[in-house]
Amino acid sequence: MSRSTAPVVDEDGLLRYGSEILPLTVSEAEVFRGLLHRRPGIASRTELTERLLYANRSASQNALDLHIMRLRRKVHSIGLTIETVRGRGFLLKARA
Fold first, then answer.
1. Could you give the maximum distance between any two Cα atoms of the chain, in Å?
2. pLDDT above 90 coverage of the chain, percent
3. How much of the chain, in percent, has pLDDT values that exceed 70?
4. pLDDT band at 1, cuts 50/70/90?
5. Residue 7: is its pLDDT beyond 70?
6. Distance (Å, rounded) from C-alpha 3 to C-alpha 14?
7. What does residue 49 show for φ and ψ, rounded to 5 degrees?
8. In 3D, which of 62, 63, 80, 60 has the Cα closest to residue 9?
9. DSSP structural state of residue 80
10. Is 64 exposed, middle or buried (0-12, 13-18, 19+ CB in 10 A)?
11. Which segments of 18-86 are extended strands (E)?
């Protein structure tokens, strides 16, 4: 697989990007799927929080921030970034 392949989260909660594979928690996988759904656009906080609620996970603003922080650390190692777009949400991008 080439690096240009779009990231995907499979049914087992594994994030696959290029030749890289990262295991995600159930909550992380749900948040990441929300980011992917909006890519290349911005995923709103409301949309990501609703995804957590739908998955029967804690969906407070603090919980979402914690999941985003953990995802940022994980995906950085495989060439992805999650940027905050103030007042709007989050943007998933490939690092240049």
1. 37
2. 72
3. 94
4. very low
5. yes
6. 17
7. -65, -40
8. 80
9. E
10. buried
11. 20-23, 42-43, 80-85
Residue 40 has pLDDT above 50, yes or no: yes
| DSSP 8-class letter at 18 | T
Whether the CB-CB separation of 17 and 78 falls below 8 Å is answered with yes
How far is the C-alpha of 59 from the C-alpha of 73, rounded, in Å?
20
pTM of the model: 0.87
* Among the listed residues 19, 43, 23, 18, the one whose alpha carbon sits nearest the alpha carbon of residue 33: 43
Place of tokens 């995907």: 8
CB 85 within 8 A of CB 41: no
Evaluate the omega torsion of the peptide bond into residue 40 and state whether it is cis, within 30 degrees of 0: yes
